[in-house]
Design a protein that fits this description.
By secondary structure, the chain is of the alpha/beta class. The strands form two sheets. A six-stranded mixed β-sheet has the order 3-8-7-4-5-6. It has a five-stranded parallel β-sheet with strand order 2-1-9-10-11, sandwiched between helices. The longest helix is centred in the C-terminal third of the chain and has 15 residues. The radius of gyration is 21 Å and the shape is elongated.
Length: 249
């Protein structure tokens, strides 16, 4: 069956140069965007119940911009003043620069890695005496606590936000030829919204091995998978599939 429409379970790209727009134009297909999951911050009341005291920590590890937003949000809600001596360890340079939204960047001790947590751990080895706070989502990579434990760091894991399914009820009677997923949470949201979902002729595309595993565990047929050696990006995998299917249809 010819591919005419795709639903990407992510927010619409803000850049007009997105490869998704090129894909749609080149292949004369409709591509819509709709996040299947959203981030919800825990309340100050919930955080107090964890008995975690932010001022007792001398450094914070940030693995994402979302973690930064919720760390400063909860600090504000608790009316805490973050010490000027607080150190910040960030997963990447881009994440580190995002701190400028909340602090005077040049006056703080900020360190960053190359995007891999293992690289950040190597940088932190010179700071083994710090009491670390790690703001995270309820769903996070197990690599983070595992590497911190292995390195013998003193840290507190703080769940400051959670990933929840979006309300997709308005899509009940809307059908797409391809559904594109990027996380196991997206698959979970699909069935939370549509418990009786039957794949039938709908193609499922996914990015990453954990998402692929979630697709199969849900009893769905995985038609398009990325990254691969031939298609390192989701748009490349989609284009390859569309060309093959639409040529033969």
């Amino acid at each position: 069956m010819k591919i005419k429409s795709i639903l990407v379970s992510q927010p619409k790209p803000t850049s007009a140069k997105s490869p998704y727009f090129d894909l749609a134009e080149k292949n004369n297909i409709k591509i819509d965007f709709r996040p299947f999951i959203q981030v919800e911050g825990i309340s100050a009341k919930e955080f107090r119940q964890t008995r975690i005291r932010i001022p007792e920590h001398s450094a914070v590890i940030f693995t994402s911009r979302t973690a930064i937003d919720h760390f400063f949000r909860i600090s504000q809600e608790l009316r805490l003043t973050i010490s000027d001596t607080m150190k910040y360890f960030c997963i990447s340079e881009a994440t580190a620069y995002y701190l400028q939204k909340y602090i005077v960047y040049r006056k703080r001790k900020i360190f960053y890695g190359d995007g891999k947590f293992s690289d950040l751990i190597n940088i932190m080895k010179k700071h083994k005496d710090e009491k670390l706070l790690v703001p995270l989502s309820d769903i996070h990579k197990q690599e983070i606590p595992e590497l911190l434990d292995k390195g013998g760091f003193h840290y507190t894991k703080a769940i400051l936000y959670r990933t929840v399914g979006s309300d997709l009820s308005d899509l009940r009677d809307v059908n797409y030829d391809i559904l594109v997923f990027f996380s196991p949470s997206g698959i979970k949201s699909l069935f939370q919204n549509f418990p009786d979902f039957h794949q039938n002729e709908t193609r499922i595309a996914c990015f990453g091995p954990s998402t692929a595993q979630a697709v199969r565990e849900a009893g769905l047929r995985l038609d398009i998978e990325a990254p691969t050696a031939q298609s390192p990006s989701m748009t490349m995998a989609l284009e390859e599939y569309i060309k093959k299917v639409n040529k033969n249809s």
